[in-house]
Amino acid sequence: MREITNALLDWYDIHARAMPWRVMPADRKAGKRPDPYAVWLSEVMLQQTTVAAVRAYHEKFTTLWPNVAALASADDADVMAAWAGLGYYARARNLLKSARAVVHEHGGMFPITYDALIKLPGIGPYTAAAISAIAFDEPSTVLDGNVERVMARLYDDHTPLPAAKTVFMDYARRHTSNDRPGDYAQAVMDLGATICTPKTPVCGICPIQSQCDSFCAGTQLDLPKKTPKKPKPTRTGIAYIARREDGAWLLETRPEKGLLGGMLGWPTTEWADDPVDAAPHSTNWTELNDHARHTFTHFHLILRVQTAWLPADASPNRGHFIAAETFDATSLPTVMKKAYTLAAATLRHV
DNA sequence: TACTCGTGGAC
DNA sequence: TGTCCAAGAGT
């Protein structure tokens, strides 16, 4: 038990990867503590998202809103626009709710314990454990995809996920460090991200190879077992991209709940097997030859694109116009940006 | 428990 | 190209 913990901490002392929100082990030993705001932001952004994708967004957010008070007083639309492209937009909505709760219900100070953190929106079991361990050195046990994989292999446990989560949590608890909880949490996740990887684990340089049951059995590539997932259906939709004579674009803020909730986008039909026309204006729409293709977590989308120019006095039945000078395609979710790219050439303002 | 909820990179 | 996958949470 302790042997593995210490081996991982020794490995982490040398191989910890530098990240903007991370306090490196030497600095932590010297008494430096991470900024809880930066840690919280990073952990929410890292949910189902790679470090490479998060870096630029973390930098943007800490520049625009350097602390939780600044974020709490930000405009919702600005935060959603800044999150555009990162995905899982409920995270951004919950981020704002949590920031405001921290400011208005916790006096601007982040809760320290797992039990208090998990009450905040967007903070679940993993993130509560990660923040309490990394930011506050509470001895919480993190169990993310990395740790699940490391534990499945360490104990050569072929129980399929997600049912195996509770068992893997029991394994993980055995090794959690009481002396250096923050470093340990990051060490075991770094190991999973860089050495104990899903497809090509580098067992030859693994600091706990001698303790690893699946290395002994040669079953690394079979683990962790997962229950097979259902195939993705293909749905179709139509996006309506219109400009007024003065160049303004017709956009729509999507409802809070559901796909791309709270994000700016083009008015569209429902995305279904056979979409029903839902044009925002009774003008003559022109359909492009090309379609935007996009894959979400649980379905493929073929998005047809129709364009139109609208008169100066147009009053569409939904959406709102955004002036050409104000419109910024980078504040759109990716699927909407794809549609825009297709339509832009035929809607050039002269 | 099972489904919803994005995106981009690796292979 | 299609599939898998990445520091999951909410319902």
From TrEMBL:
Coiled coil: none annotated. The gene is yfhQ. InterPro entries: DNA_glycosylase, Endonuclease-III-like_CS2, Endonuclease3_FeS-loop_motif, HhH-GPD_domain, HhH_base_excis_C, HhH_motif, MIG/MutY, MutY_C. Pfam families: HHH, HhH-GPD, NUDIX_4. Its cofactor is [4Fe-4S] cluster. GO terms for molecular function: 4 iron, 4 sulfur cluster binding; 8-oxo-7,8-dihydroguanine DNA N-glycosylase activity; adenine/guanine mispair binding; metal ion binding; oxidized purine DNA binding; purine-specific mismatch base pair DNA N-glycosylase activity. Residues 45-194 form the HhH-GPD domain. It comes from the Bacteria. It is an enzyme of class 3 (hydrolase). Binds 1 [4Fe-4S] cluster. SUPFAM superfamilies: DNA-glycosylase, Nudix. One of its GO terms (biological process) is base-excision repair. This is Adenine DNA glycosylase. It comes from Octadecabacter ascidiaceicola. The keyword Protein biosynthesis does not apply. Transmembrane segments: none annotated. Keywords: 4Fe-4S, DNA damage, DNA repair, Glycosidase, Hydrolase, Iron, Iron-sulfur, Metal-binding. The keyword DNA repair applies. Its EC number is 3.2.2.31. It catalyses: Hydrolyzes free adenine bases from 7,8-dihydro-8-oxoguanine:adenine mismatched double-stranded DNA, leaving an apurinic site. Belongs to the Nth/MutY family. Adenine glycosylase active on G-A mispairs. MutY also corrects error-prone DNA synthesis past GO lesions which are due to the oxidatively damaged form of guanine: 7,8-dihydro-8-oxoguanine (8-oxo-dGTP).
